[in-house]
Design brief:
single chain, alpha/beta, Rossmann fold, UDP-N-acetylmuramoyl-L-alanine:D-glutamate ligase, Protein-Tyrosine Phosphatase, Chain A, nine-stranded mixed sheet, six-stranded mixed sheet, 15 helices
Length: about 475
Amino acid sequence: MIPVRGFEGKTVAVFGLARTGLAAARALIAGGAQVAVWDEKPEARAAAEAAGLPVVDLFRADWSAFDALMLSPGVPLTFPEPHWVVVRARDAGVEIVGDMELFARTVNAALEHKRPKIVAITGTNGKSTTTALIGHVCAQAGRDVRIGGNIGVGVLDLEDMHGGAVYVLEMSSYQLDLTSSLHADVTVILNISPDHLERHGSMEGYVAAKRRILMNQGQGDTAVIGVDDPWGQQICTEITAANRRTIVPISASKAMGRGVYVLNGALYDAMGERAQEVVDLTAARSLPGRHNWQNAAAAYAAAKGLGIDPAEAAQHLLTFPGLAHRMETVGTLGRVRFVNDSKATNADAARQALSSYPKSYWIAGGRPKTDGIDPLEDLFPRVVKAYLIGEAAPAFAKVLQGKAAAAECGTLDVAVAQAYADAAASNQDAIVLLSPACASFDQYPDFEARGEAFRAAVQRLTHAAKGAA
């Protein structure tokens, strides 16, 4: 745990008692603050009480008693409308912060020689893989690395800091909206495409949230920017004009006069006098496809920004074991391979998986994003059949009509069983691919739970097949 500094003797309201809120409450208390915690779900309040945390009804509370509100990132700050707890805090003039801001203030309060290095990663797609990949490279290079944030462990639940530590943190746009003083030694913006627009009001609001990761950087810092989309190109151009930090453009689709890029699987470093090929990424079994090449370029550039030897960093890319729920093979039954890509929560992420296989039996659906699966129409010829689940199933079936075979299965276990039966009947090598292009919240609390449900369904099929043998 990282005890939060800067709130000693103060009272902080904590709203939202999932992983982030509980960690923040414990860390605030450890740092000398008092807390008043609340969640709209009775079971969450009961769990907090069982953990010894002071539960206070923030709807009826006297807000003049609070010095700050620690808001969980899933709670609407501005759009589609501010949550009532946000309104209460603003009306009372109470500062609203997130867990990343509490972490940032704790780092800033430390003596300079005790401050850790921080790598902050954001982007629409690839954040988790890149975060884990940077953490892997750092660990293999002998650094004392801690990986968390929007992936795995909440930032305040990570091991406490010291001057030699490296924190590699995935940051969502929701978290960035609540962060103002974080100074990252290395920042990464992988890519930007439309997502979470209902929470940011517009594409401009979403891009503005992503850009917040660059705040507070200066001379000696590194910004790694993906330039394969127009929003990334614009950000890179604008911060290059400011010219305060080392800026490393990255691309997985084109050669550049300056930057780090990948062509046909070969990673090139063009930050010196001339471009040099540094590693063949086709040898990295856990990093298939162009989207993973962008992740690898970002990880390589970030490692250089931390002072890790470039040749060493490049070699460590090849030993990355991969990330759960991202194009993860979870089982093979006969000639059928099951691939868990539950983290593909929008069409752009699903595109990366669909384009990696010439043919697939595709499981898709959940709570749909704004653009649905219409942007994937060019990939429908690769879909042998689609198996649709959740709220999106009827709408997705209409989009696929006349373009790809589809079945509305409703639930994931039904979809897995039907997809396997059809794939096995083909008597060919086949891929059953869970790449939902949707959020999970209609049927599961998060994409991890959905991915584990897929894994469990595959295991049940495997056990049944063994029992019948």
